[in-house]
Amino acid sequence: MSFRRKPNPNRNHPTFCPYCAGEDLYPNEETDFAWKCHECLRIFDVRFYGQDDPETPPAPAPSTHEALQKSLARFNIGSNFRDPGISPDGPTTTRALNDDTLRRNQALVDKWADTLYDESAENILDWAHEHVSEDLVVTLSMENTVLAELAKDHLPGADLLFLDTGYHFAETLEVADKVEARYPDQKLVRALPVLSRAEQDATYGPNLYLSNPTACCRMRKVEPLAVQLSDYAGWVTGLRRDDGPTRANAPALSLDDTGRLKISPLVTWTLEDTDRYIAEHDLIIHPLTQQGYPSIGCETCTLPVAEGEDPRAGRWAGQNKTECGLHS
């Protein structure tokens, strides 16, 4: 298996921890690029912190004060940038549903959630088409296009929604273009964040995905989704229970925090089921899935993983983070 990024045998020893500025660092066995700080016990990927330039000889370890100043400067702490806990000016929330729709959604979940819990994807979408098809949108990450194909056959006419974060791999954007061409009867809605990358850097400081990845995901994924969901009474997701422990008990039918239906027809699928469906239906292939990327998010926060490793191990590698917030 060939990875886009090759391990670098000549990597430098990082000079400080990007989290606590500690200097007591040692290689971590999880990946070729992982280092662990003995002081705060956090693991970080050296490629994400600008400390892995093979052309530059290792720098002597700075004093604790110097390391702290470097860490603060790197992450813009103490600067005049806006607190990332404060959302950008502009639309960031979902309009409330009317009372009739809220009551209908609650009644549907109360009646059908247990019945649909382990149903097939096709049956779940057939149920959705019968009960609420005119009010639904199908979300796509473009990692694969299984939901688009299923929607074509079982939820015809439903809109498709893609969160264009501004940080995607070029290959992901190419898949989105191919989806738009292959499914002309399904309108593809491209949701954009309030701020462009340059505007976000100017407002919150450069590389928010490093200094506060949770805030970056909120501004570029969670809030754009919230705004787009205003036009719908429910959404279809690609959530799978085998994605990880935080999703192990995910229901096929539930309500989100706004009272909208959240329908996850693939909850019982495994990665092997997904691959089989893609092959049987000759679906659009995201090229990076064949280059060591079984789970694909933004380019800045996604790394390839070794064969046999957790498929999501490359997401926010080295960070204390496993979810973007869309499903938490």
Architecture per CATH nomenclature, i.e. the level-2 architecture of the largest domain: 3-Layer(aba) Sandwich
Characterize the biggest β-sheet.
6 strands, mixed
- Helix/strand-derived category reads alpha/beta
What is the CATH topology assignment of the largest domain?
A: Rossmann fold
Question: Average pLDDT across residues?
Answer: 82
CATH top level of the largest domain is Alpha Beta
Q: Treating each run of at least 4 consecutive H or I residues as one helix, how many helices? A: 9
Low-pLDDT segments: 1-11, 50-69
- The total of beta strands comes to 9
Number of separate structural domains: 2
- First CA to last CA: what distance? 33 Å
GO molecular function, one term: adenylyl-sulfate reductase (thioredoxin) activity
Cofactor: [4Fe-4S] cluster
Catalytic activity: [thioredoxin]-disulfide + sulfite + AMP + 2 H(+) = adenosine 5'-phosphosulfate + [thioredoxin]-dithiol
Keywords: Cytoplasm, Iron, Iron-sulfur, Metal-binding, Oxidoreductase
